[in-house]
# Entry
Amino acid sequence: MAGSLKSEAIVLRSIRYGEADRVLHLYTPGYGRLAAIAKGARRARSRFGARLEPFFYIRVILHEGRGDLHTVTGVDTVAAHASLRDHAATLDAAARACDAVARLFETPEPHPEVFRLLANELALLDFDPSHARAATGLAFRLKLLLAAGIVPQLGSCAGCGESEHLQGFSAAAGGVVCSSCEAAAFPLGLESHSFLVGALGRPLAQAPDASELALAQAERAITETAEHHAHVRLRPLVRRH
# Structure
């Protein structure tokens, strides 16, 4: 049944549609990911202004139709995150964060912790350009895996439970593996393992750093976990030489 829906939301994506409209991908705390059309949003005198651009944190009123595409009827800005648009690195980091949320959480199932995590990531990028580094991007993704219920096992071997000699990673097994269980694993160094443990346990603003090799191994662990358990391929973060 048609009706009104009010919610906070973050604009993940904004797509031109027709002559003057925009189709939006929104992430909300109580309704998960939603799609909506903002009619006339691209007109010069639109009442929505520029508040429907990607990365905006808004309060939105939607008219629920019969299908999956809602209609935007009202918008207020909570945070524009204008400063992150001043730097290519922060703009790219924000786009990758929104893309990861869109890929891992594509349904209307509510995950308020994901909304809060994304809002925090965008606020940090807006406040401090140095936050746009691969280490913090990986910490953000690892916390997304936790929210999705597929975070890898890091404290002991996912194969046998051994707590020593953890030197490999297997997405199929579910996390780190010991030397006896590493047949189908790739090597995971001590620094990489320490980074994953620290990134998962610390607040996003205090994400640890690591060498490029360690970050590349950590990214492979995160990427293969998302592919194996959620059938989602995440965009790469760490440079490959």
